[in-house]
Amino acid sequence: MPYFQTWEEFSRAAEKLYLTEPMKVRVVLKYRHCDGNLCIKVTDDAVCLQYKTDQAQDVKKMEKLHGKLMRLMVSKETHSSAMEMD
Q1: pLDDT-above-90 percentage for the chain
Q2: Which residues share a beta bridge with 53?
Q3: Which of the residues 14, 34, 42, 47 has the least number of beta carbons within 10 Å of its own beta carbon?
Q4: Among 50, 77, 73, which Cα is nearest to 62's?
């Protein structure tokens, strides 16, 4: 499972994956203190997207994406209209 090199590519791919199959997608955040790495993984068991960083500024980006995905998961609007908003 290769890691994405840029945050923008990962973020777009993760949102697209979620919007295509929202009931199968799960998100995992993992912090390894010994390495100082934060890893985010978005998967639907067929496709696995990963991004790893040790930069503090990327933590805010991960929080923002994670919050956006959580809002999409609990929203009552259709997922197609959520795509149109972006």
Answers
A1: 57
A2: 38
A3: 34
A4: 50
